[in-house]
Amino acid sequence: MSSTIESAEHKTLRTAVAALGQRYGREYLARVAREGGHPDELWADAAKLGYLGVNLPEEYGGGGGGIAELSIVLEELGAAGCPLLMMVVSPAICGTVIARFGTDEQKRTWLPGLADGSRTMAFGITEPDAGSNSHRITTTARRDGDDWILTGRKVFISGVDIADATLIVGRAEDARTGRLKPCLFIVPRDTPGFGRSVIDMELQAAEKQFELTLDEVRLPSSALVGDEDAGLLQLFAGLNPERIMTAAFAIGMGRYALARAVDYAKTRQVWKEPIGAHQAVAHPLAQAHIELELARLMTQKAAALYDAGDDMGAGEAANMAKYAAGEACVRAVDQSVHTLGGNGLTREYGLGSLITASRVARIAPVSREMILNFVSHQTLGLPKSY
Predict the structure, then answer these.
(1) How far apart are CA 316 and CA 257, in angstroms?
(2) 356 HSE (CA, 13 A, CB side)
(3) How far is CA 252 from CA 34, 102, 134, 258, 293, in A?
(4) pLDDT tens digits for range 278-330
(5) What is the 3-class SS of 193-253, one letter each residue?
(6) 18 Cβ contact list (under 8 Å, min separation 6)
(7) What residues have CB less than 8 Å from 360, skipping those under 6 apart?
């Protein structure tokens, strides 16, 4: 079936996940974040229902679906006000990379736990001095007998405190060319030399952000994921799902904010009619809805391409989906807050904090400007400036 028309199975999945989300909602997630905790109850319930591992292979306890199904789960939880950010990282990036490229031992060790939610994994690519330029990654991996030694730093890495391991992107020297090539390594949380410090974020979220230090971290050869000569392919196999899931995250957040604003506009009355009857209020909300729906279409296309094995096609579509969703989310949140006026900034209505949160979709995991670079170079064939 065309990815533009949702299947009956996908509709059923949406309805079921929405029901779970409604049992928890925004107040649950806000309370967990305020108390410095983690959404363990929601994570456990989502896992028990099979939602967290819906994209992972059935032989390892997953649902045998793809990123299309996993993105539906995240979007619907987000629309209910309780998105699980670690879904982007643990099953979508790390689970996908291990399922596609991991050794049999790595699959047996990690996939059942990632599928049933009993184990989680973080993902470490961003560095303080590299920013959007992943070619400047300085975390190096060098051979020492059969072992690997990792040295470097990472920044803005989500959930390292609760993750059993972090999938670290390092660079190893190519024996033939002498040039550095990307490689992926599984680094367990308690590995000697693997340090972390929390970053004090303005954004209040259940998932904390960390700076990591890798000080001569010694790993066995079994820590290397897949083929050291195919690191770039493996890396992009994880980055495309990350963009698709970030799009789903943004669409869910935008839908949540818009629903609150629509409810308010239907009942808030300061003149004869509810404020939603005024076109200056109604039209921007209608526009926000249209933009969110368009972003979801591109997200569905990207997921369908990725799940069909078209990595190149998925790369373009995933970038476009993430761009469209980020823009739509920011505008939906902004208009929703504006619709509520002063109430949009109160804790009672819970929209004010989304002003900061919605910006995440524009910035991470890749900025809107870098996506525009990708489209101008890769799609339109325009020359590079860097």
Answers:
(1) 28
(2) 9
(3) 21, 31, 28, 10, 11
(4) 999 999 999 999 999 999 999 999 999 999 999 999 999 999 999 999 999 99
(5) CEEEEECCCCCCCCCCEEEEEEEEEEECHHHECCCHHHHHHHHHHHHHHHHHHHHHHHHHH
(6) 76, 79, 80
(7) 203
